[in-house]
């Protein structure tokens, strides 16, 4: 499929999870936020991991990331089921890795992040022992808030300014919290407070780091010998999926050329992955001719069998991923960078500069 404006939807991705931020490395739409939470540096810091725990924690996530990425472009039911299985695997393996207080704190942060929806989960429902009318009222409040949130997403997708919508969202969530608090008894509010534990600033979230999938060498490269993400350690890698017949992709070309010039001689590698959508886009010679015509000097991996497309779980042309110097996906922009007035080009350029300024060697909690 071509760009359908999901870049605009990404502007509210953080809001849906209770965090006001720009689009980050969202694994796939509808993924369990608990998976992203495990990849948050702020969470690792909160758990106060030992050096050995940090290494094991990150090693486990790196292993599971390789299984997670291919789910991104699977049918919704398959992706949701697969993600749930991976999260369950992670949870079962993290529990013995962490101390009891650390694991309890992780669960508290997860519950806090879930917000009011956690009140309707089976375990919490059992603890709360709701009266029928209470549960019905809670379901109505949460459902109404979710519906209103979806309407805000639609308005973002239609190009409305982001800041007023963020304000509306904040007011919406405050109103939801007021209504929910009014439904709960003092004893139930005490149970809820215990479940979310001591305060944790959710605004510190929004910087997840996912181990980037390794490139699948097709044996067909332009402007470079074969490359790997591992071999590019120490450099910021801008990976963009495109097809030369895609008008939205072509509209991104000026930005790629700007970055090609702006970051020349710096530790930045722009890497195009050409994945064909139509039969006309299959021929390597045509891909090369089109890349030459577009004045691409950066490496292009010709992904004729969609091996890289599927390894990354990509689902639209164009898509731009930013991989840091350690090989971790940090930012992601789905769709055309300037779709309907979006400002993805300067935003992503600033993120490249941010990653460029980072050290190539950092701890798992950074």
The radius of gyration over CA amounts to 22 Å
Summarize the helix and strand pattern as letters.
HHHHHHHHHHHEEEHEHEHEEH
Distinct helical segment count = 15
Structural class, by secondary structure, is alpha/beta
Please summarize the sheet with the most strands.
7 strands, mixed
Q: What is the global morphology?
A: globular
Task: Tell me how many strands there are.
Answer: 7
Largest sheet, spatial ordering of strands: 1-7-6-3-4-5-2
Strand content: 5-15%
**Mean pLDDT, all residues:** 88
Number of domains: 2
Helix fraction, binned, reads 40-55%
Oligomer: single chain
Low-confidence stretches: 1-25
Q: Distance N terminus to C terminus?
A: 36 Å
Can you give a write-up of this model?
The protein is an alpha/beta fold and 366 residues long. It folds into two domains: 6-204, no CATH class; 212-357, Glutaredoxin. It is built from 15 helices and seven strands. The chain has helices spanning 6-10, 13-16, 33-38, 41-47, 51-68, 76-97, 100-114, 122-128, 132-157, 162-183, 186-196, 247-262, 284-293, 307-311, 344-357; strands spanning 210-211, 221-222, 236-242, 268-274, 300-302, 319-323, 328-334. A seven-stranded mixed β-sheet has the order 1-7-6-3-4-5-2. α5 (51-68) runs antiparallel to α6. The protein is globular, with a radius of gyration of 22 Å.
